[in-house]
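WARN retry 2 of 3 for item q-0093 after timeout on previous attempt; input resubmitted unchanged.
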Amino acid sequence: MVQRILRVNRDSVFKLRPVPSDDLSTRETYDVEAGETYEIQSYAYADINGDFNGHIKFALKDSSLKGFNTWFVHSASAQVEFDGVVVYPHEDQRSVPIVRVVRDTIFKQRPLQSSVLAPSEIVSVSRNKNIPLHSYAYADQQGNFSNHIRIAIRDEKDFLQGRSTWYVYDQHAYIEFDGEVVYPKPEANDFVLRVTRNTFFKRQPKSSSQLSPSQLHSVNQGSVWILHSYAYADRQGDFNNHIKLALKYEKDFINELSTWYIYDGHARVEYNGQVVYPVPRPTPPPPSNDYSGIRFKLPGNYGHVYTDQPIVSGGNFFWGEATKNATRIPPSVTITENIIELARRLQRARSQLGRPFQINSWYRPPNVNAAVGGASRSQHLFGKAADIQVSGLSGRQVANAVFGWWNGGIGIYSHMPSVVHLDTGPRRYWGF
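OK item q-0093 returned
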């Protein structure tokens, strides 16, 4: 018979209801210490109505506390084990999404205009506030939240007015995971600006030396920006070999400005993965390779590669995506080969769906994996896993599409509904 254990990972509180401790009476709480274990009959982290406000619901086996059998505990404070194997949180479900607030705004108890809400239903939040989350959502069975994001704050110390769950207007904040934006996510019909070398955004289409520091903003090679629109000329002519761009999301605005210029030799505009600007023009013969990204060396006999070089010849996945733009270079031949094998499998999935894939996280060194809260034996550590978004599809839709043939791990998350986890480890799945 399977032994089911709830293990407490830090000093915490069992609760009879999944609400902040301050909202409960002493009869409704039970203090527990890190390291304690309890044999349980069952557990759940969600029901038909959604998750339990960032809590695990569990039923004790053959015992009770204060006369009650069923309790809740904050999911950041405990884990569930079956015969010594952690079954919750699932692979990478420990990883923490973050809400980043980009302008002074209002968090709300309901996704409505602030003016129609009572003072007790709103709280002011300043720009640059970053809060770790248990989960987020942008829609439910009734539809979307009127351009709001619903967030569940992870740690009680960060709760606002003692509450975990709030709504925020999606132009005033965004959700980030492992350094990548997971919501709002790019749509299939978005124009994308890809920066191909370290350069500047400019307020005027002039040489950088002609502009003041306040008219310049440095941008890094490999960075990607979602555009509302772009232009390379107007009625007066072209922009002195610059692209005029309007950033789509307010979160990306620079000094609260959306419109900038960039030299067209330092960036390109893409649509559905294809370069649409600059328009091809006569150029000198190309160098020995066609890549302009960061050059780095792989272990073993693989030699040097570039961040904009496909992992598999002719494929749509690049070394820059697997290595976080050459900041996470694989230390061994084994990890390199795992990355190549995963790229082959992902290419089949991309060809099946016919849509661009956005890689949020691929290879993670141990220190990075620990920093983002990854599982201790995460497949990311071995280059075997990627967390992905597919334009226009939820994580569940992608998982369902590849489920029949993907011979590895497939995971979807209640706390990151737009993300799907795919790996080449043992066959298993979670979140379905």
